[in-house]
# Entry
Amino acid sequence: MSDGNGHRGRVPGRHGTGVLVAVVSLLMGGTAGADAVWQITPRITLGGTYTDNVNLSPRGQEAHDWIGEVVPGVMAERQGRRLNAFVNYSLWNRYYLRHSGRNRARHTLQASSNLEAIDQFLFVDANATRRERAFSLLEPVGVSTDTGALATVTTASVSPYIVQSLGRFADGQVRYTYDRIWYRRANQPGSAGHLWQGVLDSGPLFGTRFFWRANYSHERNEYDNDLRPDETFERYSGTLGYRISPRLEVFGTAGEERNDYPTVLDEQDGSFWEVGTRWDPTRRTHVEAVYGEQFFGETGRLNVQHRTRRSTWRAGYSKRVTTGRRLVLQEEAFDPEDPEAVLFLFLLFGPEEFATFVDMDEGVFFMPRLLNEPVIAERATASVTYRIGRSRFVLSGNRFELEFQDGITPGEKGHGVGAGWNWRFAPRTSSQTSVGWTRTEFELDEPREDDRYFFRLRVAKEYTPQLTASVSYRHQGRLSSAGRAFEYRENAVTARATMEF
# Structure
């Protein structure tokens, strides 16, 4: 974009609400048609928390407080022939008894929709979120504790795409995605993204043994800060594969990428290749393994899943170039009642996506840093879930390494383990117990290691289909090689009741 004088145009942050309103209008089904059936459920949550360290201060500087909560909200859901949509909104009002200067209200939003605009041809996806994130794990941040080190992140995206069959030759899809990210209380510029994608998949003309795919993508990210250069990522590739049997196939991919972003690497683009296999030795077991090379070195990914009647086993590995804004846009929704989801957020999905879990009832998540810089992210994960009777257990662990490409931002690496237990000990009463530990190493001028740990026990009861209540206890802390001034520990008890109307 240009203003006629050779200067690149920007999308001012104050106009962001217009984009968000347009997205939410689409989510709410402005073209829903006669088959629209909405289920709208208003709710109100009342609660309170007692904490013995409201600021997560070092030993000897702790201050206790009582925190009241009033949280109105609404959930709207629609499933129809042409439009499926989901909107969940809450307004969190928090009142501190001893630190009233910290009283504030904040919005949380999660919304998504899919519209079939033209029958079996043109579709539109739309998404919008508003959450809070930690802008640095170097700050005193913890599970469900707002110490002022949180930033509000709002995202919105609209993605029309065309699906078209080319007879027996191939099936094709062309997609354009426009997205926006806004930050509040964070030293980060907002940004707009444009992503064009095209893919062709081989059709039945080529038989059942051979298959091929052609891919193209072009991504451009524009930042609201004129001092921050824009980024471009362009990639095209071809894949050729062979099915040895219905359960085993091998494939190879080769392509070219042309990137333009700030980096200290000698190269930031060039040719790439990868070879891999997909193997399903049984109906309950899936293995996908890929090895290749890209401009920055060796790459790979691994996905192993195995299910039994009572258990699910997972293991994974990936190494890729990505950006902070991509990770923000790739958030997924998880069930806050599910301890497996809690631990997946805390550990399994890796710190480049979710470093630390914060109470999902509040819609707050932590990242290692709230940054836009390109990063080479490497992670390995493993987990097992076991179900027996009314209980479900989960054990998970991960290892990660982040190498930022701007030559300024220090890298991070670490590992962690966690366990959880969900027990429905009565028809309408359940408990969720989770414990976790992570060690993060910060590559600062003076290297620093932080050990963060937490324990959480929550008991919830459904009195009626409309009324639920819960009581939870948490203990958390941080130990740091930087000294006791950077350490803390906290105990807190929370009680909440939610009424739906």
